[in-house]
Amino acid sequence: MNKRDSRLRRARKTRLKIAQLGVKRLVVYKSNCHIYAQVIDETGSKILASASTLSKDIAATVTNGGNVDAAKIVGKAIAEKAIALGVKEVAFDRAGFYYHGRVKALADSAREAGLVF
Question: Whole-prediction pTM value?
Answer without folding.
Answer: 0.93
